[in-house]
């Protein structure tokens, strides 16, 4: 492609609303253009990147035996009513009525539709297993669309759904999808991590997320560098401390904390480690107050709390509810002296082994120190793992200590089991002639999100730094003086033709612009290899080669340039 | 691909609701599966066909210099309000509100969005011309979805939009699109015709439709076998008769027509040619009655009528309006004796030169014969071309006589001119620094409709008869006894590998089924070439080759089979 026949549209500054580097850079590079909140046009340059991602996803899915189909984006409400999700999916689902006032939605996902296909097309175990996938535009009406294509409302997703006669077959396909996903992200040149993920109401251990690693990632991931363990922090278990609780050594006493309402402030005032403090979080569940106690340096894990008996639909207590029960403002709350007949006390494992700790005194402007279980307050009603792991925690597999990194979720594989096949009567006849619901799996990749995630991982102050597999063009040939130098024009046209003939995805920058403008554009849009052809070097038979990720350029003989690029891209 | 790893799902009978052969065959062959009214899943077999069409469209658009992008499917109402189409597009547009109660639609077309992109991205004549295209899912809420993918609600469309500094540039791109469209349909192996089409309110002659020819086509096309003339019947001009009106020869007289209410019945009763009769059609426009007179054998052309002064928004008169004016029931209406101060009389050119004609008498059960202009009624207020051409009419280019065929519209190219650029202030600075609205063109192809149209043109009693370019597989290797004969398995696997290595799209039917079942499936789904490998022929070193379109099969040496297929597909 020649820039003169293409559409490059770069900006010096990104619009103010863009927060993340990838969002800013995608707008500045002209990969996308905003139509409305969470709605983006993929401009020709960006679509080239998106299509490259799609092609790798399609190839790996096909190699793994999945069959591509294409389901409608618009789905009738009836199927969602049958699965029970029409009422519960919430406002993320874009609903509409057709001209006959029938209810439809723009599919946020396709479990219902594929299960409907499965129940009418699959009759016998002989047809199983089957794995169908599609690459399709989806819509989720995010309450606050942001981060450009990373949390857009309309987006491109690869979703796959598999059908099985038994769990062993599901596990086999699931493992194949795990490998296929790993291949996809490896081939795209991304640093990524697969982590065990929460399976929610379905339970079991059949769910993994795939994350592109980036400092800006919304998800915290726990992994063990000396073992295979990796899990979303939501799921990673904080083991019970190995040591038992020491005996009380201090007397219980009030501490004057006139302005100190957080553990950090109290620890600083008392000049003690934060690990000696305990914080209290008040939650309501089933109309009852629950008190969660955490060590001052720990944070609550809502997924773990939600899995405790009676806590499925918990919410944070309101300030009004707190004041009514404790007769004290938030910031000074503590577990000592509360009416335990009216409240359930949930202590994190780490708190349950503490002695002589500091916590709120349940009166304004005071904390208490030297608090001890048994002596100053009854033991907790429940001791459980309710905190997020932190770096340095022991790995749950006992093979080292955890580290924490941040990731952007780009893939998720999940063993649905029989959730949808039972709801929609998607059954088959097994070898014994018995009717059974099919085991199912689902496997998603955020195709358009990958582009943003890749840029979060690959950028510098000049712009985007695409891996070769995702770059809009593999090579840029910058012809300086194309319109005034016959020699430059001849050399550039010849090299361009040679690279094209070698199947290389090359952009010939034949614009009548200053070199600085051309260089800046090529760097901003992230082309990994740049060859500059200008009169000065050409007089010596040279062209200049610059790798996007290398600091220095080098001179190469003009007749060797095509061979060099072929070798680099082989 | 092996059938054992693919998903074939054929039916003996099509669902009753399917009317057209293509709809029946697509369901029977398992190319598509219905989700709801006008909503179809493209099953793996069908998606292979759709993707082949997409690939050819994409390739020809790119070769013609168009740049692919991808605009959102969901569009904000504001742009449509700006163009004035939000209120007038009608119930075909699927409208919805997002979670913030803002209005959106599922884009039925993208003129507004692309014009919004153009106005913000294009500033100078130096950037022009530009031609953008996308291949995308669209939605139009048809009042009566039918014919499967041919008139579905959700469908795949290629839409392109071009921007220009002047009309000459638009014409150049338009001509390029005309050639690209011709290439697309030629490469897909379709018999098609490009015809001049109506430009509606925009006027001018810049619109062509591309039709796949098929007896079941909804559109009538007029063309001249001895010249280049071809036009949708909506548009084809019926020239004024060369001969002038003969003098009256008969006396005006009542004719008793007790049960004869149509020209056909009256002509039969009187034993005269239908061409001697005149029919009357009553239309309302601008609150005034208009009478259109047509020869008995002609039909009214509503597009032509709508272009007459004062007739833009005409409608047919109700029976009540007819009875109130004529004091006579429909079936016996005529132009003689009506109060011409209250009605406008529009005579088709053919009627204007008739003498001694027969028409309704304006009293029940009577017609009148021997009617003559001037003598029996005043000359018409307007003489115009208001009928559809018929086979045998002179070609408007004067180079022969017209024939009529039927077609399915699969493409449409259109010179929008400045309709949208003026409405949305999509302007540029020309070489003189003047601000001007851009000239625009739009170019659509019904990608998913092409699959149905192709089948309407290519089927027989065994099933679909795909052209090679659109077939889901180019070759089927049917291995009879694959699971019980080592020789068959070895020969089939070897040939399959050889064909795959040659880049041929081959399906190896390795099912454990009777030959009749396998043959019937391969014929139904329309694979153009079939090679059968069975023990009997293999004993003589032969395989059987059968072209889908040839009556007879032939024996070929097994070692020559791959070379033969390569030669046939070269």
TrEMBL record, chains A, B:
Q: Which reaction does it catalyse?
A: tRNA(Pro) + L-proline + ATP = L-prolyl-tRNA(Pro) + AMP + diphosphate
Where is the protein found, in the record's own terms?
Cytoplasm
InterPro entries, per database record: aa-tRNA-synt_IIb, aa-tRNA-synth_II, aa-tRNA-synth_II/BPL/LPL, Anticodon-bd, Anticodon-bd_dom_sf, Pro-tRNA-ligase_IIa, Pro-tRNA-synth_IIa_bac-type, Pro-tRNA-Synthase_IIa_type1
Give the principal location in a single coarse category: cytoplasm
Broad EC category: ligase
MF GO annotations: proline-tRNA ligase activity
Q: Which domain of life is it from?
A: Bacteria
- Give the record's keywords alphabetically: Aminoacyl-tRNA synthetase, ATP-binding, Cytoplasm, Ligase, Nucleotide-binding, Protein biosynthesis
- Ranges for domain Aminoacyl-transfer RNA synthetases class-II family profile come to 33-467
Q: Which family does it belong to?
A: Belongs to the class-II aminoacyl-tRNA synthetase family. ProS type 1 subfamily.
**Role of this protein:** Catalyzes the attachment of proline to tRNA(Pro) in a two-step reaction: proline is first activated by ATP to form Pro-AMP and then transferred to the acceptor end of tRNA(Pro). As ProRS can inadvertently accommodate and process non-cognate amino acids such as alanine and cysteine, to avoid such errors it has two additional distinct editing activities against alanine. One activity is designated as 'pretransfer' editing and involves the tRNA(Pro)-independent hydrolysis of activated Ala-AMP.
> Subunit arrangement?
Homodimer.
Q: What is known of its domains?
A: Consists of three domains: the N-terminal catalytic domain, the editing domain and the C-terminal anticodon-binding domain.
**Protein's name according to its UniProt entry:** Proline--tRNA ligase
Organism, scientific name:
Parachitinimonas caeni
């Amino acid at each position: 492609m020649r820039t003169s026949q293409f559409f490059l549209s770069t900006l010096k500054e990104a619009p103010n609303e863009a927060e993340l580097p990838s969002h800013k850079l995608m707008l500045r590079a002209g990969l996308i253009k905003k139509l409305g909140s969470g709605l983006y046009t993929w401009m020709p340059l960006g679509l080239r990147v998106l299509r490259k991602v799609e092609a790798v996803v399609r190839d790996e899915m096909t190699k793994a035996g999945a069959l591509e189909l294409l389901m409608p984006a618009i789905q009738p409400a009836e199927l969602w009513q049958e699965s029970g999700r029409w009422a519960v999916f919430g406002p993320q689902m874009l609903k509409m009525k057709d001209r006959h006032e029938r209810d439809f939605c723009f599919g946020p996902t396709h479990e219902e539709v594929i299960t409907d296909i499965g129940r009418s097309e699959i009759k016998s175990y002989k047809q199983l297993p089957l794995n169908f996938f599609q690459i399709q535009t989806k819509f989720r009406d995010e309450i606050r669309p942001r981060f450009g294509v990373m949390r857009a409302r309309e987006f491109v997703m690869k979703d796959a759904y598999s059908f099985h006669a038994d769990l062993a077959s599901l596990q086999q396909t699931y493992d194949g999808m795990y490998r296929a996903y790993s291949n996809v992200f490896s081939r795209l040149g991304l640093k990524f991590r697969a982590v065990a993920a929460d399976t929610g109401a379905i339970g079991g251990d059949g769910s993994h997320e795939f994350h592109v690693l980036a400092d800006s990632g919304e998800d915290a991931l726990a992994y063990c560098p000396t073992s295979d363990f990796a899990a979303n922090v939501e799921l990673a278990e904080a083991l019970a401390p190995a040591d038992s609780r020491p005996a009380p050594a201090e007397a219980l006493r009030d501490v004057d904390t006139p302005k100190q309402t957080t553990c950090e402030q109290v620890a600083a005032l008392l000049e003690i480690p934060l690990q000696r403090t305990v914080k209290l979080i008040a939650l309501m569940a089933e109309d009852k107050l629950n008190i969660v106690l955490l060590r001052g340096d720990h944070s609550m894990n809502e997924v773990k709390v939600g899995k405790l008996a009676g806590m499925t639909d918990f919410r944070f207590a309101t300030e009004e509810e707190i004041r009514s029960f404790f007769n004290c403002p938030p910031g000074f709350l503590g577990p000592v002296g509360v009416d335990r007949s009216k409240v359930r006390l949930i202590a994190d494992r780490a708190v349950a082994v503490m002695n002589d700790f500091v916590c709120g005194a349940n009166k304004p402007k005071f904390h208490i120190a030297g608090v001890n279980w048994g002596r100053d307050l009854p033991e907790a009603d429940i001791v459980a793992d309710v905190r997020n792991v932190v770096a340095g925690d022991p790995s749950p597999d006992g093979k080292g200590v955890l580290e924490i990194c941040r990731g952007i979720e780009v893939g998720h594989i999940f063993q649905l089991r029989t959730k949808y096949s039972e709801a929609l009567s998607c059954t088959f006849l097994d070898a014994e002639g018995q009717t059974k619901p099919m085991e199912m799996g689902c496997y998603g990749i955020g195709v358009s999100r990958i582009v943003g995630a890749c840029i979060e991982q690959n950028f510098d102050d000049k712009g985007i730094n695409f891996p070769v597999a995702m770059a809009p063009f593999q090579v840029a040939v910058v012809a300086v003086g194309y319109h005034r130098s016959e020699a430059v024009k001849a050399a550039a046209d010849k090299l361009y033709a040679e690279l094209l003939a070698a199947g290389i995805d090359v952009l010939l920058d034949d614009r009548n612009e200053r070199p600085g403008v051309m260089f800046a554009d090529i760097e901003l849009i992230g082309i990994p290899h740049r060859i500059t052809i200008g009169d000065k070097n050409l007089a010596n038979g040279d062209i200049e080669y610059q790798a996007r990720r290398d600091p220095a350029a080098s001179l190469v003989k003009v007749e060797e340039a095509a061979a060099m690029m072929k070798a680099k891209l082989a």
